[in-house]
Amino acid sequence: MKRSVLASLTLIAGLGAGTALAEPQAEVLHWWTSGGEARAVQTLMDEFQSNGGKWVDMPVAGGGGDAAMQALRARVLSGNAPTAVQLKGPSIQEWYEEGVLADLSGVGKVEKWDLLLPAAIAGHMKCGGKYCAAPVNVHRVNWIWANTAVLARAGVSIPTSWDEFNTAAVKLKALGITPLAHGGQAWQDATVFESVVLGIGGPAFYRKALVDLDPAALNSATMVKVFDQMRTLRGFVDSNFSGREWNLATAMVINGEAAFQIMGDWAKGEFTAAGKTPGKDYQCNPTPGAGFLYNVDSFAMFKVSGADREAGQKLLAKLIVGENFQKTFNLAKGSIPARLGTPLGEFDYCARRSAYDMDVAASSGTLLPSYAHGMALRGQQAGAITDLVTQHFNSDMSSAQAAKSLADAVANSR
Ligand code: GAL
Fold first, then answer.
1. C-alpha span between 390 and 412 (Å, rounded)
2. CA dihedral in degrees (207, 208, 214, 215; nearest 10)?
3. CB 299 less than 6 A from any atom of ligand 1
4. Is the N or C terminus of the chain more exposed, i.e. has fewer CB atoms within 10 Å?
5. 225: CA distance to ligand 1 center in Å?
6. Is 373 in the pocket of ligand 1 (CB under 6 A)?
7. pLDDT of residue 20
């Protein structure tokens, strides 16, 4: 009796200490700082906090995440990695190879991620066969956004081919309207470029060129045509585009200063944050051509010490794949849930179209990873392509020279 009271007391004391120690905590590194992105990340912060977690925010501004990835490198090198990091695609593997990622297979098992995630997405989240990241969404990259009233005023409709796009843009320009809202940053040039590669070359060409890095596809007549179209597009952006953030380009479409933007559906998060309605105030359509370029955002957890931080990682990972988060986050973010079977009843037609097109693409072999958003290639190879694309866009380099230099740059980056 005496012993069992003592044992219970020890157990209670132990539990108490354990609970006090393991107050879930997470320092979260992300680059979601635009209006729509901030609304989306707030949903995660709210859910984490309402489940007892302590959130330490580490936002690093800069669309596409280049600055955030630099900040991450500095933190890991100084031996002080953040608890949770917005990380995706092959870069998850690159960090895993450095030996700095935490193992999430325990959470994945308890939460049955193998049953809840499509195999292709789960594949990106595993390191050496074990879960090391949790997916928040699926963004489609190859969208063209349009201001409905501007198109009506100019008497142009949504282009279904690149030639139609060019004709519409010439008409808009003659009316003094900026045809294409664009921000002059390398990753934005790359975002437009990959949609043009898909549209002009088709899905099989895209795969050969930007996934398999086939030298013959990189330096081909088709690639020359792609660069021709990039040069034409350069003529449709306003003169102040240099350095502009993507969300300010989206604002130009929202405000009617520009007609179109070619951007992933995080742009929809900006329209949503501005209270705009798809189909009425603005239009969402895939860029001309077939295929679906996907970009899955995810969080990887870094190896940290301390029960609080480990508990924070587990809680965060669990919530991220949860049904509630997958809905609330993606409603704000513009993307669609990564979790299978999440009801889309509250989502708009752009999201439903994205989900439908993704299914069709998956069954027809045209579901392709975005190179510009870090889903297809390792950092060095993607960087070599983007450098060349942006160099071409901002110079008078010929298309033939660009195609040749592209193949050379990729060869040198291997
Ligand atoms: C992408 C990211 C999106 C969005 C965008 C602009 O790379 O996957 O979630 O944040 O950058 O910042």
1. 18
2. -110
3. no
4. N
5. 28
6. yes
7. 53
Tell me the backbone φ, ψ of residue 295, rounded to 5 degrees. Answer: -145, 110
Indicate which residue's Cα is closest to atom 12 of ligand 1: 63
Examine the domain organization and report whether 119 and 150 are in the same domain: no
Using the mean position of ligand 1's atoms as its centre, give its distance from the Cα of residue 107 in Å. 26
Which residue ranges of the chain lie beneath pLDDT 70? 1-21
Q: Examine the fold and report which residue of 310, 345, 380 is the final residue of a domain before the chain moves on.
A: 345
Query: Looking at the structure, do residues 164 and 126 belong to the same domain, yes or no?
Result: no
Determine the pLDDT at residue 22.
Answer: 84
Same domain? For 246 and 377 the reply is yes
Number of domains in the chain: 2
pLDDT in tens, 154-177: 999 999 999 999 999 999 999 999
- Residue-number span of the structural domain to which 404 is assigned: 140-294+351-413
Are 273 and 361 found together in one domain?
yes
Centre of ligand 1 to C-alpha 79, Å, is 26
Supply the pLDDT for residue 330. 98
Residues 180 and 266 in one domain: yes
* Cα 139 to averaged position of ligand 1 atoms, centre (Å): 9
Q: How far apart are CA 146 and CA 303, in angstroms?
A: 44
pLDDT at 414: 85
- Residue 145 beta carbon below 6 angstroms from any ligand 1 atom: no
How does strand 54-59 pair with strand 367-369?
unpaired
CATH number at residue 249: 3.40.190.10
What's the 1 CA to ligand 1 centre distance in angstroms?
Answer: 61
- Is 208 in the same domain as 66? no
- Tell me: do 241 and 308 sit in the same domain: no
Q: Which long-range contacts (CB under 8 A, 24 or more apart) does 93-99 make?
A: 93/127, 94/378, 94/379, 95/300, 95/302, 96/127, 96/128, 96/132, 99/303
Best residue for ligand 1 mutational test, from 33, 297, 330, 354 (most atoms within 8 Å of Cβ)? 297
Ligand 1 atom 3, closest CA: 266
Per-residue pLDDT tens for 390-402? 999 999 999 999 9
CA of 66 to the centre of ligand 1 (A): 10
Do 154 and 240 share a domain, yes or no? yes
